[in-house]
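Entry for the shared binder. Reason: the reviewer on the internal report wants the predicted structure included alongside the sequence.
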Amino acid sequence: MPDEWRLIELEIHSASENMALDEACLDEIASGNSPPTIRFYRWKPSAVSIGYFQSIESEVNLDECAKNGIDVVRRQTGGGAVFHDYENEITYSIIAPEKMFPKGITESYREICGFIVSGLEILGLHAEFKPINDVLVNGKKVSGNAQTRRKGVLLQHGTILYGLDLDRMFSVLRVGSEKISDKAIQSVRDRVTSIRDECNSSYGECLSAIESSFIEGKTHYFSPWTSAELLRAKELAEKKYSAREWNYLR
């Protein structure tokens, strides 16, 4: 019998809650108590997440975040700092036993990012996977992804840009003044795009396309979090992902 996937449809959480739910789900799958899971979510308030190995003070303009009510959290995955704009982003996590995916890092990224590619193609966009962990539309980055493997479980989460507010992004990510010149911003515009820049699809249409491509060919059912996951996530959100010890780890 093929593995059954649980799909958790779009939810809205704070940064600490989103990261806590990912970890709680991973732990419950590792314990054999939860099924392979695909979830979609937004960040409210908008947030910056930094990679596990990054320094929060080097990567984030903390004063600007505080002034604008923007959350900051450290992920358990690697990679760079990301601005998660509530209005302009679809975020997903896919969490399942490692054995369900290719062993190679690039190959597993290719398989999972392929779901994003397929979803974007439903919208009529020319999308492609670019190793190691990006998805491009018409040669420009529209999705970044990060992965970790712990306790025999693979967790990959990533963003799909529905819109792009570069001024706001540059205000909260700590980049050198030379990088926020008009020329530098134009350079980013030449390399990064969003769904809204490429087609007229609504946010709901984009979400529906991405969701359908993730579950294509999978035996799946719609289900909420278990009480154990919610209890563990509440603890992790309060004691880990909201804690200075974790977020200022480096």
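Summary line for the report: Residues 4-247 form a domain with the BirA Bifunctional Protein; domain 2 fold (CATH 3.30.930.10).
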